[in-house]
Automatic annotation (TrEMBL):
Alphabetic keyword roster: Glycosidase, Hydrolase
InterPro entries: GH (IPR017853), GH13_cat_dom (IPR006047), Glyco_hydro_b (IPR013780), O16G_dom_2 (IPR045857), SusG-like_C (IPR056300)
CDD domains: AmyAc_SI_OligoGlu_DGase (cd11333)
Hydrolase is among the record's keywords: yes
GO biological process, one term: oligosaccharide catabolic process
Name listed for the protein in its UniProt record: Alpha-glucosidase
Gene Ontology terms, MF aspect: alpha-amylase activity
Family of this protein: Belongs to the glycosyl hydrolase 13 family.
The keyword Hydrolase appears for this protein: yes
Residues in Glycosyl hydrolase family 13 catalytic domain copies: 17-424
SMART domains: Aamy
Length: 562
């Protein structure tokens, strides 16, 4: 059990993301709930994780599945009550597990009291909590496109002569961080939660809190005449003032663990973000997820190749090596397709390949985050029609693809590849109806492959993806190898060898070699020295002879070197 009062305790942790809506329903409502997570705590303890990040369970109209919060200090009745939340924090703690909540403070819901009051009195205290501008009915202050499509500007309800800014959906008005009174309210709320005993926060869309002011246009990147909001993020300067203040006022005094959702940061600013005394403990590595992303939209994003995957991982590892930064490593989350469907080339997604991908990512330097169902090898679910899609981002991207001249089928193909629904289908517990997720009608379709891919079957199968993840977690916790596996430097090995992803983790005493053969054909790799022990293998044999190893297709080998 980790001692959470020790500085940097979280570096030795393994984190797990729960998407509450799709984890476990206990009421038959079709939506997962807090009691469902409590019921499954023993399962998570058995898996061996130390930290749970909960996607939002706050009061919300659920336009963006809880990322639109109408009351930061209330639990949405769909998920339960504040008593349930307190119970979850306490019961997790008994099992040595810390709860991390989602801090969504770039924006709130338009149904939040602050925004309601801002609509009543745009010039009053709460009007100043948002970005509200006068409007002549024609000219907008700037040409920024919101992340979910359309202009960031929307008429203020009840005020035809005013508009407000939203960098995501129009029901997610942006909070004005330039206003110290707003910041005070946020810090009070954050400290209120931390005082309840949270281990920390995952911090949503945080890079958006700093805007380019005065507003200005950027060159249009689509025929709609607008520019991506990321162009604005790229040009905004001075976010450090807000982030440093929040860390000083909230996180540092509570020794809280924080993982920032940071999409855009200059390399030279990285130490300020996650160095010693940085704004956050860690931040997610999205280098692989944004690989091949196109300004035009999802339809123009090419699938990532194994060589690109390797290059992205190594590039990120290198960026933080110089100052000892600790990234949070993922193959997927609630915003991304399933990692096994994305990173393993089409048609080759087998149990062996799933284990290889999991191992390659998990053993990189940093904090591994497992997303619910990843430990079972859950896969994407393609749907036939846009009417079956819940995700607001996917619905927008479908339209973007049609506008660009694609056929409905082509647009659906793009959506199926990247839709956020892919990772949001309910957790597959067993072979009973709805995979044991709910006795009611699930809010989102259950992947029909639950008959084959489910926890119950994998628990009893020593060769399952699930048991493999348990072994991986145990390997990370082997204290005699901690200098290498947790703190060791990442040194890429034979980068030029195609479809081989290999790296050394070099500690003060130990060296571990991680190798994955990212192709169906075998390939031979010379070894950098003598092997002390095979620590992990997703195949039955390890063909080590004469200073080399011949890896089978999609074989993963983790070797403890002399
Ligand atoms: O995501 C922020 C974000 O910038 C994106 O990755 C977003 O997922 C993408 O534009 C969709 O294709 C965070 C949350 O993780 C996401 O679920 C929320 O929708 C978003 O913020 C708004 O709160």
């Amino acid at each position: 059990m980790l001692n959470k009062t020790q500085p940097n305790w979280w570096r030795r942790a393994v984190a797990y993301q729960v998407y509450p809506k799709s984890f476990q329903d206990t009421t038959g409502s079709g939506t997962g709930d807090l009691q469902g997570i409590i019921r499954r705590l023993d399962y998570l303890a058995e898996l061996g994780i130390d930290v749970i990040w909960l996607s939002p369970v706050f009061a919300s109209p659920q336009v963006d599945n809880g990322y639109d919060i109408s009351d930061y200090r209330a639990i949405d009745p769909r998920f339960g009550t504040m008593e349930d939340m307190d119970e979850l924090i306490a019961k997790a703690k008994e099992r040595g597990i810390g709860i991390v909540m989602d801090l969504v403070v770039n924006h709130c819901s338009d149904e939040h009291e602050w925004f309601q009051k801002a609509c009543q009195d745009p010039d009053g205290r709460y009007g100043r909590f948002f970005y509200i501008e006068d409007w002549d009915g024609e000219h907008l202050p700037c040409n920024w496109r919101s992340a979910f499509g359309g202009s960031v500007w929307e008429p203020l309800p009840g005020h035809p002569d005013k508009i407000y800014l939203h960098t995501f959906h129009k029901k997610q008005p942006d909070l004005n961080w330039e206003n110290p009174e707003l910041r005070e309210e946020i810090y009070k709320m954050v400290n209120w939660w931390l005082d309840k005993g949270l281990a920390g926060f995952r911090i949503d869309a945080i890079i958006n809190i700093k805007k380019v002011l005065p507003y200005r246009d950027y060159p249009a990147d689509r025929s709609d005449g607008m520019c991506s909001i990321s162009t604005m993020n790229y040009h905004a300067k001075g976010i450090g003032q807000f982030l440093g203040e929040m860390a000083d006022r909230c996180f540092t005094p509570h020794h809280a663990f924080t993982a920032g959702e940071v999409f855009y940061v200059n390399d030279e600013d990285l130490p300020e973000f996650i160095g010693d005394n940085g704004y956050f403990s860690s931040m997610f590595d999205f280098n692989e997820t944004v690989c091949n992303a196109s300004d035009k939209g999802w339809y123009d994003q090419k699938p990532i190749t194994p060589e690109q995957y390797k290059a992205c991982c190594f590039e990120s590892q290198k960026k933080v090596a110089g100052f000892d930064g600790f990234l949070s490593n993922i193959i997927e989350n609630h915003d991304e397709p399933r990692g096994v469907s994305r990173y393993i080339p089409k048609g080759e997604c087998t149990v062996r390949g799933k284990k290889m991908l999991g191992g390659l990512n998990f053993l990189l330097r940093g904090l591994p985050f497992i997303y619910q169902g990843q430990e079972l090898g859950m896969e994407n679910l393609a749907v036939n029609s846009i009417d079956e899609v819940d995700d607001i981002s996917a619905r927008d991207e479908y339209q973007v693809a049609l506008n660009a001249g694609l056929t409905e089928q082509q647009a659906m193909d793009a959506v199926n590849m990247f839709s956020r629904d892919n990772a949001r289908t309910p957790f597959q517990w067993d072979t009973t109806e709805n995979a044991g997720f709910t006795t009611g009608k699930p809010w989102l379709h259950v992947n029909p492959n639950y008959k084959e891919i489910n926890l119950e079957a994998q628990r009893n199968d020593p060769d399952s993806v699930y048991q493999f993840y348990r072994t991986l977690i145990q390997l990370r916790k082997k204290s005699e190898l901690e200098d290498a596996i947790i703190y060791g430097e990442t040194v890429p090995y034979r980068v030029e060898q195609k479809n081989l992803m290999a790296y050394l983790r070099k500690g003060e005493k130990n060296t571990v070699l991680v190798m994955g053969n990212f192709q169906p054909e075998a390939q031979t790799v010379p070894l950098p020295g003598a092997v002390k022990q095979v620590l992990l293998n997703n195949c039955d044999t390890a063909a080590i002879a004469d200073g080399a190893v011949t890896l089978e297709g999609y074989q993963l080998l983790v070797l403890w070197m002399e």
